[in-house]
Amino acid sequence: MKNSKSSAGQRLSSQPNSQALITSPVRIWSVPSCVCTLPVPIENCFGVLFLDSQNGVIAFEELFQGSINTCSIYVRIIVQKAMQYNASSVILAHNHPSSNPVPSAADKALTLRIKAALLLVEVNTHDHMIVTGNTLTSFAESGLL
């Protein structure tokens, strides 16, 4: 992991990358510009991996940054970006500067709100990943999604 404030709005490619198919939560590590850009432990940040219908990576964007213990997330912006990229699905990702990998009640509630909003425009939410150091916590694998 690297600490970087300059990665906001980073885009991998305008075309889906068949080499970076996301077939399991651990495959998110195969996207070099994705979760590895989420700062640990300085500040909270939240990014979205936009996928095509074959789970190929369209883009990753770090959409929101916050402080050491909070980050304001706007569901509307996530939906707008999904539509802009013509994404079929998304994987949400954010870090926990505290290094606590356990999803909070706020994390769970936010995930459900985002998932419901994206479903209205026929975009699936495959997972929500919490990044802490060199570990990932998957909502999907934990039965939270």
TrEMBL record:
<dbReference type="GO" id="GO:0046872">
    <property type="term" value="F:metal ion binding"/>
</dbReference>
<dbReference type="GO" id="GO:0008237">
    <property type="term" value="F:metallopeptidase activity"/>
</dbReference>
<keyword id="KW-0645">Protease</keyword>
<keyword id="KW-0862">Zinc</keyword>
<keyword id="KW-0378">Hydrolase</keyword>
<feature type="domain" description="MPN">
    <location>
        <begin position="21"/>
        <end position="145"/>
    </location>
</feature>
<dbReference type="GO" id="GO:0006508">
    <property type="term" value="P:proteolysis"/>
</dbReference>
<dbReference type="Pfam" id="PF04002">
    <property type="entry name" value="RadC"/>
</dbReference>
<protein>
    <recommendedName>
        <fullName>MPN domain-containing protein</fullName>
    </recommendedName>
</protein>
<keyword id="KW-0482">Metalloprotease</keyword>
<dbReference type="InterPro" id="IPR001405">
    <property type="entry name" value="UPF0758"/>
</dbReference>
<keyword id="KW-0614">Plasmid</keyword>
<keyword id="KW-0479">Metal-binding</keyword>
<dbReference type="InterPro" id="IPR025657">
    <property type="entry name" value="RadC_JAB"/>
</dbReference>
<dbReference type="InterPro" id="IPR037518">
    <property type="entry name" value="MPN"/>
</dbReference>
